Fold each of these.
Amino acid sequence: VSNALGSTIAISSTGLFAQAQRISVVSQNIANASSTSSTPGGDAFRRKMISFEVDPDRIGDGGGVRVAEQSVDTSPFRTEYAPSHPGADEQGFVKMPNVDMAIELADMREAARGYQANVQVIKQARELISMTINLLGGS
Amino acid sequence: MARSGEPSRGSGAIGAAVLATGQQILGCGMDSVGLLNLVSRSNAWLSERHNAIARNVANVNTPGYRAVDVPTFSDALGAAGGELVRSHPAHIATGQGVAVVAQSESEEGGEATYSGNTVSLEKEMLKAGEVSGKFALGTSVYKSFHRMIISSAR
């Protein structure tokens, strides 16, 4: 009994780890939402993205989740007219990061919801284990 | 007072009688339906189901992941004549009589999202609540039957 429930906790903890990493990537994106280049015409900060996959190493143990890869968003930069900026090109345009606050916030909400759900499963597995252990103490 | 299971030398006859009564209770009375065994199997099945729920919740944002579930308890119990079996080498090794059931793709098939993921958090939470309730019922039944056996052997 405790074998399955023990690996349940291990699986949910992989979920916690993955969602936490996702939140960390979101925070990087938000923190760098206006990080531009300091050299004229240079590229600004590119939005980072994270993707998940089933963890094949743990398949016998129940198949948790892991971070597959971190990639960057290759969508074009926004440009702003700011001739006095050190990163401005000859026409006076500065490349701004391709970070969209609405997308980041939605992503963060989704990650937080996933994290919460995993915590709930761990809590419940612990409850089930302690129910079984309490069989010893009863009667 | 002689206790069942360890009759003292002085009161050997009484001890033997108590032991016989105990065996009678376990053999043909209370445990004739194999209730204690059934409860532990049921709880093993519930733990496995909880394991499947944990997989689904952990992979709630994994692209292309298909939600898994275990067959119903009666199916799992009936499939092998009352015995739950290990049906795939990747399953967790079974100890003595610990049942492990196959986890397969869920048939309910939640709406696949754009990424091809079929996990519905709401559905998983509902299932988790169900598992928790049934598990509590199982342990309570086990506990009360155990108490009855102990009190009759006292």
Note: The longest helix of chain A spans residues 101-137.
Amino acid sequence: MTTRGAAVVIVGAGVTGLSAGWWLARAGVDVLVLDKGIVGWEASGRNGGGATHVYSPFGLEEQRLWPQMDELLGYPTEHQPFRIGVALSETQLALARRWAEIGEARGFRWELLDRRQLKELVPIVGDNAIGGTYLHFGGHANPQRTVQAYAWALQDLGGRILQHTTVTGLVQRGGRVTAVETTRGTFGAEVVVIAAGPQTGLFAEMLGVALPLAPARVEMIATEPIPLMSVGGVAGNGLYGRQTLRGNLVYGGGPHEWINVPDMATPEHRNTPLVRNLARRLAELFPGAAHVRMIRAWSGLVENTPDGLPVVDRLASPDNVVIATMSSVGFGLSPASGRAIAELVQHGRCSFADLGALALARFADTPEDWRERAGWIATRQELELAAGGDG
Amino acid sequence: MRGVDRRSIAGKGPRAERHVPLVVVGAGAAGVAAAVEAARHGVETLLIDEHPVDNDMMAMDVPLCFGQRMQPAVRNRALMLERVVESNPALAGAHDAGVDVQLGTYVWAAFVGGPTAQELPGPMLGLADERRSWLVSYDRLIVAAGARDVLLGFAGWERAGTLGASGAAALLARYRALAARRLVVIGSGALGLHTAALALEHGVEVAGIVELDERVRGDRAAANALAARGVPFFTAHTVRAARGCVGEIESVVLAAVDGQGRPITRRDREVACDAVCVAVGLVPSVELLHLVGARLRFDGPRGGWVPDVDGWMRTSVPSVFAAGDCAGFHDAMLGAPEIAHEQGRVAGLGAATSLGALDRQEAEQRRYVGAAPMPPASADPFGHWQAWLRSLIAASGWEVNVCQCEEVTRRELVETRPPRYLKWDSPQMSARSLATLLRDGPVNQDQIKRLTRAGMGPCQSRRCREQVGLLLAHSAGVAVEHIPLPTFRPPVRPLPLNVLWPPDEPNAMREDWVSWFGIPTQFSPHWEPGMVLDEPTAHARLIVSDE
């Protein structure tokens, strides 16, 4: 049975797939986005919301687009400009400066803050802070609201989204993918975009393409609201995150847990006692908010390539497939990554960024056991290896 | 030896401060019976209860809706501890049986391992008091966490004095600290009548019992006894508003309704009172059961989402048992604590048997000596709650807050409006609503929570969870049971960062902590290919190189 397909079928309604779909719909392309669950339900909707990635080939476009996104989409993203880095040690200050200098190299402005200046901007920092950086670039947005904004804007332009539709296979004919098989029928496609997060590697495998990806679980915490600071994008002390426009402090960081994703089903999102360590780090970062209550915690699953950089590439064969994984840093870059993917679909190349560093070919010689070599393996797997189950 | 990613959790799994073979959560009838039974068979047992809850927690309507009607005496912890112990004579029996009883202790999380959490050495609970938090691991867990009130809003329900029946009962009987003199009770079912009788017993006047139905729903004899003591019944009435000055309730306006629950014009009456107690029903407190991954199913007559349990009150997670109201609440259990007691006893027996403390045959013999552990199912309360909600909407309109913490009105919820503080307006946004969302998929309360913020506040959706579900079901035209259970996440009690934080951390946790994965090339500037930017740790200074 073939249900009505689309010129472009996108597998995965995460932030990258939705942005790509929205850019395609803007260009008048007939687009269909498929997802096993609800739009943006995985890491795309539950991350730190940071939008400060000027180091990336997509960095300048990210910075150019974010201030326009509310207007372009027609829905709120809660984007707020600027970032403040708080340093509790010389080492942390060196890192914060390095981030600032990377921005400076791209023509952005920043200033060094002494403790007094820092405290004026961020009243909840304590005497343990030695200083910080004020980036007059970058920013943050609300991930949940943004993914829904992409989805709605895509629909407003005539694009379609099918939720609760798990992709089970890719139909190949004559060196091309001609259709996508799902739990709700088969959808014909001229071009297929695979932006399925941790599952992206499994789809690549279906096409006989090796895409080295290691999934991991990470955790975040949120506090009750506190009075709004003039800049909400404050982070440091090994934490990423922000103050939301409602006033909640929402932060993550610390050790990740490498896991395995054996199939298309999403493993459960579990929190662990790591939330206590996060609470400690956050109270150290903001001694003035140490008494504030934690009201929520959650975890998310993200995937990484061996070098931590995205793969955004149009395959050589089958030649009508674009593969996209942002290697655990997808939300902030989404306005630009989606545009790049749309251009790869339409024109086979990206007009505004050099995607050379993001090509899949760089992993051509990656050994099959690269995760073991890197130590990026799940505990159970590690135990099996130690017991001699290797090989 | 292969290298392990030092920035990962590998080898840094949390360690529990204490291991106890059996932990029982909740010292009500079920929990105490469970603990005593297990201890009787030689099982080392820890029984935990959060009461007395501190004043700050109560002020947030956690864990029950106390409606700001606490007497200042609740700040006196020692006094409250005395009263809590006094009100629960069975606790002395637990002490005598050798149970380690810890009162005033919150269970704020249940952590269990799984495919994505393999570093957890075993299941553990997050516990806390006002000063610190700690972890306790267990072999068996019995959850006897009780039930929560179903709250339904009306105009002015944010005012001090709107309580839930459980909150009122706790303040009356356990704390003896209810700061109210004239109470209006909403609901004339078993819960409403029970609450009214309890209030009278503690010297609180009952200014009326309001019932939507044309007749009193509960036991006739109980209702007659209340009427004989001068309690007025307002049947075929709904609530229009609570009124008063300076944030207080001084009266409640009731509206007479027709057979369809719609207010009849010019038939309002105002009843003076200083508290309104919503006593239309209870739902099982399944937070911890959800967190441990016990299979829950929707069973309307038992209050909605309940754990699947076997004849030993064992859940689908073999190490976890559930007993009492949290295993399924039923009106018959209100006046009959022996039901919860028996469930608890059976759970204690089951846990002890599974730990090898007694053999199965002996356990079988001891299993049912008292009341049948499950009352017969009666009518589904959800239809009645829906009828209440419809009448409240008809009487108080769509501008009433459904979520108090985040100030989300009924209208904003079903229009899936972004929060007011965003001051967002666009034609696209105005065209979106619950109805348009339904075209994309079935109702999902968590998704609507993220969009509207209903349920995202410090009370952790205790006051709005059920009414948001009922309202969504009402507006979407679906049965409540078809809306998936909104998730519970730790901490299931809102606790300060400086209580939740661990006093000490393993060196590896502190030393190798990085904000993200610590992949040296992840954030390297693309114009300097191969550049390494190694996030510093305790041992390593910032490394920037193109090695």
Note: Chain A has a mean pLDDT of 95.
